[in-house]
């Protein structure tokens, strides 16, 4: 049986994971076409800027929670068996302040901060912290084993694995989603396009998903080692500011954050916010710096800004037929709107996407 041709549009963590899983199945000829590829650092390309870790935020019973649940086994396998992927285990603590409950960060972290969280039966070593072990000002917290990912290693690793199974990667700028079908490396039109363009889906002709919006994040990447991955439910500096500290695998440095600035497209770091981020990190995790030192004890690698591809209504995994510029229908499966949780939903979401791809390829294109 001949393989069917698929073009994956977008080379963020979702596009690259989707391409790898499709290529590895042996059923498809896979081409990835994207404006930005691993190694690029651009405000349009969110994945390199991510933390990235596994801190579930999906509400129990929701598709997002199911994607997170189904992603953990693969991330844990990579951390345990394939160090070359750039994923490692981390002792993790998350802290809750009651006064943050109705803030944007408190809402974002609501499921993460529950003492009866659904993922307590997924991740290892889940414990409720004793009150005496809480930092000053915290009302509760939990600890567990999670993972942190070095994006500078992991994204190229996804490409290398895709290459191993025959996927082809091409640079290209696509104005209409159906144009991606013509980028297939076989020279023939792809049988289906997978749209993994993230925030660009807001502007992509044929899609223009108006539910997409940016949530700006800002980080400081440092050489210091915290010894723990830590997050809190908010700060006194602002309702859309937060504390998170995570050490990337394989010498990737430690990420200090951050913020969740909904609707902001600003690409440049804010110096005042950077100082607040560093001060909060050192206060929460004094072992980051030599004893008696403040933020002057941090060794800064760089400042970073990324735009999380948020979506009203949550992640969109959906199939449809879209009329191209030449009037013919192209089968499209969307996998967009992963917000700040692309890595931790990547494999579970791809499982759902692949099911829709299989269904779509068995159907006649309909307008």
UniProtKB/TrEMBL annotation:
Family of this protein: Belongs to the DAMOX/DASOX family.
Cofactor(s) named in the record: FAD
Pfam families named among the record's database cross-references: DAO
UniProt entry tagged with the keyword Flavoprotein: yes
PANTHER family, per the entry: D-AMINO ACID OXIDASE (PTHR11530), D-AMINO ACID OXIDASE (AFU_ORTHOLOGUE AFUA_5G11290) (PTHR11530:SF16)
Residue ranges annotated for the FAD dependent oxidoreductase domain, each copy included: 6-354
Protein name: FAD dependent oxidoreductase domain-containing protein
SUPFAM superfamilies from the UniProt entry: FAD-linked reductases, C-terminal domain, Nucleotide-binding domain
Keywords from the UniProt entry: FAD, Flavoprotein, Oxidoreductase
